[in-house]
Amino acid sequence: MSYVKNATNTLKKVLLCPPTYFEFEPINVITEEWLRQGESVNKEACLREHADFVQAYRENDVEVVLMEPTPGLTYEVFARDFGGCVAEGYIMGKFREPCRVGETEKYEAKMKELGIAPIARCTSGAFEGGDFWLLDEYTIVHGIIARTDQDGYINIKRQMQTLGYTMIGIPCNRENLHLDMCFNIVADKVAVVCKAALPDFFLKMLEKRHFTLIDVPQEGVFRHYCNLQALGAGRVISFTDNKNVNEKMQTLGLNVIRVDLVEILKGGGGPHCMTFPLLRV
Ligand SMILES: NC(=[NH2+])NCCC[C@H](N)C(=O)O
To answer: Pfam families per the record (predicted)?
Structure first.
């Protein structure tokens, strides 16, 4: 059985969590800014947006497994962040922010129920799935930004090495939060990136691997312009307001699926953060 081999094969199954108990937490620059402006959560809109998101997956032949949301877990909707799935099983991360720590046991129980085994577990520091990317079938790049620290990174790197994976740490400025906010593989050898936020050596790595890059300005990171979800076979889940990037992806021949996401994005996460891939064949 192989679960998730890479970032771009056909996505078959995902784990999502409805934003039933969604609240703003001042733990990222995006939400902090909305709170400063006096914004509050529009729960009804969030639930509607999430239902549309679920439907977009189903319409594209992706099976959706839904979490039973837990009261008090305000950011459980960002399913991506508890860990990462690879071919052999999944990596259990370790949340940095106290308001997210409780998600670990809920997601772990769900993975057990799904019969997917943990093949690595972060036991020191912090390690979040929003930083995790399979660059190819045996190379992992992982952001060391606001939520994964050096300890957590080294801890998982050692464990993944024994399974034959090479892991490369990508340091970025803290405001970028997670690597998927400034780097996102949307199709085979195509990525939406914020070059200004990424270290030169990583941009060189992408160049050597012949990636086509769609670049967004630093401001775009905070509007989730990079935060998209590849479905494979040239299809990408994006959102309506991401006009410029959507057009550029279309010019490259990609099929862009637009979901009306506005309110959930204010929590500091987008389509990629909301999706934990379970099966990509
Ligand atoms: N994979 C991601 N970029 N996730 C974004 C998580 C946003 C969430 N509100 C947090 O600050 O924890």
So the answer is: DDAH_eukar
- What's the CATH superfamily of 11-280? L-arginine/glycine Amidinotransferase; Chain A (3.75.10.10)
Q: Which of 74, 75, 182 to mutate to test the pocket of ligand 1 (most atoms within 8 A of CB)?
A: 75
pLDDT tens digits along 14-71: 999 999 999 999 999 999 999 999 999 999 999 999 999 999 999 999 999 999 999 9
180 CA closest ligand 1 atom index? 3
- Both structure tokens of 184: 């996102």
User: What residues contact residue 141 under an 8 Å CB cut-off, 6+ apart?
Assistant: 133, 135, 167, 168, 169, 170, 179, 183, 202, 205
User: How is the beta sheet containing 63-66 ordered, strand by strand?
Assistant: 63-66, 11-16, 276-280
Residue 106: half-sphere exposure toward Cβ, Cα within 13 Å: 23
Q: How far is the CA of 267 from the centre of ligand 1 (A)?
A: 7
Q: Whose CA is nearest to atom 5 of ligand 1?
A: 269
Cα 235 to averaged position of ligand 1 atoms, centre (Å): 23
Q: Tell me which DSSP letter residue 259 carries.
A: E
Distance of alpha carbon 29 from alpha carbon 165, whole angstroms: 32
Protein residue whose Cα sits closest to atom 6 of ligand 1: 269
Every domain of the chain and the residues it spans: 11-280
Report the C-alpha gap between 86 and 84 in whole angstroms: 7
247 CA from centroid of ligand 1 (Å) = 25
Give the integer Cα–Cα distance in Å for 220 and 31.
Answer: 15
* ipTM score for this prediction: 0.95
